[in-house]
Amino acid sequence: MLNWSRYKSLKNNLTDFNLFSLFVFLFQLSQSLISIFIPIYFYKLGLPIIKIIFFYFLVEALNTIFFINYPKYIMKLGYKKSLLCSIPFLIIYNILLIFLPNNMWLFYILPLLNAMKTVFYNMGHHLSFVTFSDKNKIGRNISLLGIISIIVSILSPYISGLLSSFNFTYLYIASIIILLFSLIPLIFIKSSQSYSGTIKISNIFKKIFSKSERNNLISFCGYATEVTVDFIIWPIFTVIMFTSLEKTGLVISLTALVGIITYRIIGILTDSKDKINLIRKSNIFLSLSLLLRIFISNPISYMVLASIKNVTEKVTRVPWSAQGYELAKKENYFDFILRREVIFHGTRIFSYPLFILIFKLFNNPFVIIFIVGAITSLGYSFIQRE
Question: What pLDDT score does 214 carry?
Fold first, then answer.
């Protein structure tokens, strides 16, 4: 028999941050099932790598346009409704992916849906985190979401590889079902703050390129480029090396395991140590681990170097993210997050054409791009103290 008093007690004790964390877990699981396999899916459909990179260039170009033109609507919606608005776009995106093989013209519609999802989700996600996180435990809050991300990254690649080895359609249907379940915790979040005031895009760009924000600009540009290599180029490199989708998923899952303990430790250190010192020391090892990827020649070297990279990445990104949220809380955090998103997506507009050029000019483009990723990752260290 259901104990209603215990149910009510549990419901009352669930904070908005707990509900937000559960939503993030389900949303990321849904998205992770497909995100790492979308470039692989395109590759398996026979699309050349240059065209796959062009797809993501279109996504980022639209992202930048939307982040410049739509913040006023997100201000009115608030973070909860903004997250809700992202879900229909992702569902339609998944459905169209099912029909893509026989309707290749959808290839040019998909970036629009991806960009609409991104603008609502990213702003809603970061505004929710700034609002719900405990300022004295921001490192541990980030590491919790990081551990959620790791669990997702362990589960999803293997599940994705298994499902996609039968049929990619199963993958997209599973993603949609999980996405619908993510609505449950989101609906129960009590707060849904909207934002007053106006956003002047001219002021946003003035601030981005101001002398006082120069270091943050370098830091955010470096992050955006490094993540692009990790998100698009790395999966294609992995599937070429391992050939089997199922093996690709399993390998990615195994190398992600090492990140869970790392996240827990670095979350505690981030709250107790100087974040800037942590970032600068760990950033050197991250850059070196990214550079070492050029020596990957077999599955064993892949496993070792990918595991090292996963550790150094977490040790750098947790204090870096915590420092970013602290900077946001010290000013109008809507403005800060918007500026950061514009920099992220604007940077990638330049990154993708560079990658296309590298694939056209060099016989071993992966090596060149891994070097670019290693160099640009040094940007993490430039984030400002205040």
Answer: 93
Task: Sketch out the chain's domains with CATH numbers.
Answer: 15-382 (1.20.1250.20)
167 sits in the region (left: phi over 0; alpha: psi -120 to 50; else beta) called: beta
What pTM, to 2 d.p., does this model score? 0.80
pLDDT at residue 168 in the model: 63
SS3 (DSSP) at 258: coil
CB-based burial label for 212 (10 Å; 0-12, 13-18, 19+): exposed
Q: 217 Cβ partners below 8 Å, 6+ apart?
A: 208, 209, 343
Mean pLDDT of the chain: 80
Give the pLDDT of residue 67: 85
User: Which stretches of the chain score pLDDT less than 70?
Assistant: 1-14, 33-37, 133-168, 191-198, 242-264, 267-268, 271-272
The whole-number pLDDT of residue 98 equals: 81
Identify the pLDDT of residue 189. 80
Largest CA distance in the chain: 69
Inter-residue contact 298 to 346 (CB < 8 Å) = no
Structure tokens at 371: 């070097």
Tokens representing 202 are 């001219």
Instruction: Give the separation between CA 216 and CA 289, rounded to whole angstroms.
Output: 23
Reference 274, options 320, 236, 206; nearest CA is 320
Residue 263's closest CA among 325, 310, 213, 216?
Answer: 310
Helix axes 16-35, 168-181, angle to 10 degrees: 170
Count Cβ atoms below 10 Å from residue 56 Cβ, excluding itself.
22
CB 190 within 8 A of CB 312: no
From the number of C-beta atoms within 10 Å of its C-beta (0-12, 13-18, 19+), residue 69 rates as exposed
3-state SS class at 52 = helix
Instruction: Return the pLDDT at 9.
Output: 44
Please name which of 252, 187, 205, 218 lies closest in space to residue 37, comparing C-alpha atoms.
252
Tokens standing for residue 361: 């000019």
Return the SS3 of 15.
coil
- Asked whether 22 and 144 are in contact (CB, 8 A), the reply is no
Q: State the angle between helix axes of 299-329 and 245-256 in degrees (0 to 180), rounded to the nearest 10.
A: 60
